Amino acid sequence: MPDTPHDDQPDGGTEREHDQPGERGDPTDGDQDPVADGGSDSSTPGTSDSHDGEIDETSKHDQLDEVRENPEGEELTSDHGVKISDTDNSLKAGERGPTIMEDFHFREKMTQFDHESIPERVVHARGTGAHGYFQPYEDPDLGDEYDDIEEVTKAKVLTDSDQKTPVFTRFSTVVGSRGSSDTVRDVRGFATKFYTEEGNWDLVGNNMPPFFIQDAMEFPDLVHAIKPEPDDGMPQASAAHDTFWDFASLKPEISHMIMWVLSGRALPRAYRMMQGFGVHTFRLVNDDGESVFVKFHWTPELGTHQLVWDETTKLWGKSSDFNRKGLYDVIEEGYDPEWELGIQIFDEEQAEEFDFDVLDPTKIVPETEVPVRPIGKMVLNETPDNFFAEVEQVAFHPGNVVPGIDFSNDPLLQGRLFSYQDTQLNRFGSANWDEIPINRPVAERHNNQRAGFMRQEINEGKASYKPNSIGDDDPQEVPEEEGGYEHYAEKISGKKIRNRSDSFEDHFTQARLFWNSMSEPEKQNIVDAAHFELGKVDRMEIRERMVYDLFNNVDHGFAKRVAEGIGVEPPESPGDELPDHDREDPSLSMENRTPDTIETRKIAMLIDDDFDDEHVSELRSALEDEGARVKIISKVLGEKSGANGETVEPDKHHVAAASVSFDAVLVPGGSESVDAMTQQGDPKHFVAEAFKHYKPIAAVGEGTELFEAVDLPDTDIADDGDLVSDAGVVTCRNDDLDEFAEKFIDAIAQHRHWDRDPEAVPA
User: Fold this and answer.
1) Are residues 209 and 154 in the same domain?
2) pTM, whole model, 2 decimals?
3) Region (Disordered) spans which residues (predicted)?
């Protein structure tokens, strides 16, 4: 079984042993000279420091310790420290009289409650997040052109392999409100805040590399179109309505992104199994002021996997927090999910040779043209202590960069550099949102900002302006050679104009590349998604525009397949703008991103009384040794007895468990156990539903009788003495549990078994 570093915690959680006060470089201890250590001669060397200039993966946690409060064993007080004798009854004029205005405790308590919410994000409201660290690789392979990463960037967060930089990563849906389900069909946000020694760097991206639109000017229109319709406020967290597809059908530039959104990429199995992308083209800058373009990629160690549509719709009701809970469960059980940070780097000359414009955010740089070079890894290893203070109040801004990272002229990115600062001002009601603990840098902060609503710092000195003489003109500006940020000196010339480059006008070449790169099951998923989404559109002219003006310029066969499901007359010939290429990029297919591992997979083991003790114990051990998480499911909670006297405690009962919450299903033997389950509807539905969703399912011994009772179509079930593995259905009637476990583990590692035809399964 993989290392589980949190197992030594008594409660199974992720609490770390933080230093006690005074043990971690307290500046009042010893004879430290703050000036010699790079600080000032003040008693407070920095407003965000407490790490003596050394930053590691615990630095942010140490900083947050200073604002953590634990009520265990403490007395109840007001916000101002007054001890409270009664918090259940307001102060009244007589037992049945009116409440008196002088009740300061009631007013304080109620005011806090009335104001404890802040406006939710306009987009990305439904999210979750976790703490961790990022560490660069010691000597990343950048190909033949570069020997060292310092040749392309001076950013220490990307170049110092000894440095573990603390991070906070937030995952989110885009369209839905804060209370919506997190398994809806949608883009997912993937935003990481790096608390570097040079200041905060926010890499704010998505789980899909292109975007819907080319210019930030269009963003309000996109969001207004995709949000619930303004007359009736419906539908929630869904694009399946007239206004979005009306907008899309009139915007050919959206075609590439639509293909991604209709694919399984919009239905991630788990955040730990989801890629992330910086979306835009950025710049890396080295010490000599030289620049290359860069695209950022996050690649999950556990592969990139999806849910299926029917599964997601059931999860909306049965486990609307499925992805959030999945992230927190694996971290708290000791499996720290990892992502590899990769970069695509190319210079201006290479960019000119591409058949697309690298400043166009609706385009990707295909990995067939520029490979992704891994440069480091991110590990998420701690869940929040307070969801509101950390996940809701964390605020990202793509303009937060550090020396060595700069922007391109991508017009969507340029607009975001304004928009994110502006939206944080709206959400928090103050320019001081950067002082909230989760947003505060670990690096020192010194500037002349002194006031504003809810200011947290107490700034010393009379001078809050530059230049000044009464404060020795402090704080001092920092030259570039000493770490001061300097923008890349790009030469710019041109007239002020509202226009778009001709190089942005190809809207279908990469959409076709994406379609060509899909396996047939993935293509069918896209067609099915289009049937659902456009099937919800009332206006025929919108459906027709999508088929004729967009899809028929991506692929003629695709357009015909969509048309046949939504009542549109199929086009007779390809569209006039159909690209003349059949190129593919294998990296775009999720089927090519399935590593040979079952780590963190969640397996349901169905039992009842008199189960086969050996089957349960040996198979559970075999699966857990490979890193899977096995959960026992039975009709009711309470101890279950095996045929040979062993007992187990079910983790879930039928009322609270469903196959959609698991990756695979296993039915051990035991004649009485299986007989009982064949008389129950829930176990049979559990198996049938998992089969319908292409998941691996397995049965051993008498457990195969439950599969026979379900009547799985076109599936071979083992006879006496046999072991059969058929399209992810593993059954065994012999005593070779080792071989059975091996076959089942192989089936789980494949994730989905698309070579089934589950249409006849009533689940």
Assistant:
1) yes
2) 0.91
3) 1-97, 463-482, 566-596
